[in-house]
Amino acid sequence: MIEAKGLTKRYGDKCAVEDLTFTVRPGIVTGFLGPNGAGKSTTMRMILGLDRPTRGSVTVNGKPYAAHRTPLREVGALLDARAVHPGRSPYHHLLALAQSNGLPRSRVLDVIEAVGLADIAKRRTGRFSLGMEQRLGIATALLGDPHTLILDEPLNGLDTEGIRWVRALLRDLAARGRTVFVSSHLMTEMALTADHVVVIGKGRLVADRSLASLVADSGHSSLEDAFVDLTSGAVEFPAPTQNGSHS
Amino acid sequence: MSVMRAELTKFRSVPSTAWSLLSALTLIVAFGVMYAMVRVTRPPADPTGFDAVEVSLAGVQVAQLAVGILGVMVITNEYASGLIRTTLAAVPRRIPVLWGKAAVLATVIFTLCLPAVFGAFLSGQSVLSAERLDISLDEPAVARAVVGGALYLAVVAVIGLGLGTILRHTAGGVAAVIGFLLGPQMLTGFLPAELADDMYRWLPSPAGLAITTTAPGSTLLSPWSGFAVFLLYAAGLLTLAAWRLRRHDA
Question: Core-most of A111, A244, B96, B231, by most CB within 10 Å?
Answer without folding.
Answer: A111
